[in-house]
Amino acid sequence: MKVNRFHMGLIAVVLMIASAGTHRVGAQPGAGTSSLDVTVKAFLDGARYQWREWNVPYEDGQILHDLVVQNGFKNVLEIGTSTGHSAIWLAWAASKTGGTVITIEIDRNRYERALENFRKAGVSQYIDARLANAHELVKTLPGPFDFVFSDADKEWYLQYFKDLDPKIRVNGCFVAHNVLRSWASQAEEFLAYVKAKPNYRTRIERGSGEGISISCKAAE
């Protein structure tokens, strides 16, 4: 009788282990919170009110993250890294879609501080950070891209768009920051141009109030 109880107990343990293993294998991607999620969220929340030097506000970073995740974008380009706030949001999103982010910054000091912030946030492996003049580098990038975020010199938004339009996939989006700012009148020419493109659909999210234009490409 003792032997039978031992075997019954052993069978129960085996079944419990098998059941637990099946549950883990069947879990949907993103169903739980990963260690990276914990690390990134803690970093972003802790530094929420410390970002300066043309970094996006927290609310706008969240919008960028959600756009990438909800659309499954994988090939992401950012023009204007600053010290890395928006790139961290984008890289966090890319970690969930199996993607990567190329981000471009012209200022060495900001670039090096961004690299350190990427390390602290735990997202360095998802970011290809370039120290370069975006006016020149953007023209040479092969693409294709699912998602482009422009947050550099506003007077160059239109040229960035023209250079990247052929490299943006159908259903991909070109997103620009600060389009509702009064001092960002340089972006008006860009907005007029992209809104007139028959194969793009453009909307503006207010976000923090800075204004984020989202122009998504349809088939011609």
SSE sequence, one letter per element = HHHEHEHEHEHEHEE
CATH homologous superfamily descriptor of the largest domain? Vaccinia Virus protein VP39
Strand order of the largest sheet: 3-2-1-4-5-7-6
Task: Please tell me the CATH architecture of the largest domain by its name.
Answer: 3-Layer(aba) Sandwich
The poorly predicted ranges are 1-31
Radius of gyration: 22 Å
Q: Identify the CATH class of the largest domain.
A: Alpha Beta
Strand coverage percent: 15-25%
Termini Cα gap? 77 Å
State the CATH topology of the largest domain: Rossmann fold
Provide keyphrases for this structure:
47% helix; 8 helices; 220 residues; single chain; globular; Rossmann fold; alpha/beta; disordered N terminus; seven-stranded mixed beta sheet
Describe the model:
By secondary structure, the chain is of the alpha/beta class. It folds into two domains: about 1-30; about 35-215, Vaccinia Virus protein VP39 (Rossmann fold), CATH 3.40.50. It is about 45% helix and about 20% strand. The chain has helices at about 1-25, 35-45, 60-70, 85-95, 110-120, 135-140, 155-165, 185-195; strands spanning about 75-80, 100-105, 125-130, 145-150, 170-175, 200-205, 210-215. A seven-stranded mixed β-sheet has the order 3-2-1-4-5-7-6, sandwiched between helices. Helix 2 runs antiparallel to helix 4 and helix 7 (about 155-165) runs parallel beside helix 8 (about 185-195).
